[in-house]
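Fold this: Carbohydrate ABC transporter permease
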Amino acid sequence: MNRAAGAKKLSLSKISIYLFLGLASLLSLFPFYWMFVMATSPSAAYNSIPPTLTPGNMLVENFQKVLGQINFFQSMWNTIILCTVVTLVVLIISSLAGFAFAKFKFPGKNAFFIAILLTMVIPPQLGLIPQYYLIANAGLLDTLQGVMILFFLNPLGIFLMRQYISESVPDELIEAAKLDGCSNFRIYRSIVLPIILPAFATLGIIVFTAVWGEFLWQFTVLRDPEMYTIQVALASLSNTFKVDFGMLLSGVFWATVPLIIIFLFFNRLFISSITDGAVK
């Protein structure tokens, strides 16, 4: 009898958890669904009461309007180049720095690490003017290089890599590799990199999506429409007194599709990284 009551209680507990997770998932997905609904509807549907919750039939028409206003595919290509290069450089720099902070002893290591972490609490707007001055003096205005360089050093990436390497790479393994005559870079390439691939996927998704969605710095540096990233190009759609919300949200919808594809592609490694950390 007690067993049956305990099993029933456990079952009800599981059902309540699943219901809560299902509701949370629906609430998280609803903004994407609503964006799709608006992308398929006329602009008037944006302010309709009651709100429109069913998709329309204007997805192609609204996207054609976007193509008539901005160079959408060129902007998407610029954004893909920007995000890909930044993500690769951040992964390399962060993993090397994280390896050094996790497994090496050198003077001032803790002070350097704390200084890097402190940069995370500084609002990016405070550095906008000096950063713009440096980029302008370097002749990198209106270039993707001028946008990229600001994102190469990622304090969060260094912190995540340092924590993951500290917990995932045994000191004994590194000492054994040194006894076999491996250089530090050989240890990093042959031992550390294969172990931290799940963390690479997690950090890569975080960096790629963050750079994709960043607007202020890209808007500050880029002025030539041929160099626009997708965020700056979409912002130019609303530079009028009357905004066509169907057109605007159609552009936003298609600009979101690559992020969804990337997340689905790296989803398994992303979850593996989280579960590995939970087990440890």
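The chain has a mean pLDDT of 85. Residues 84 and 208 are 7 Å apart (CA to CA).
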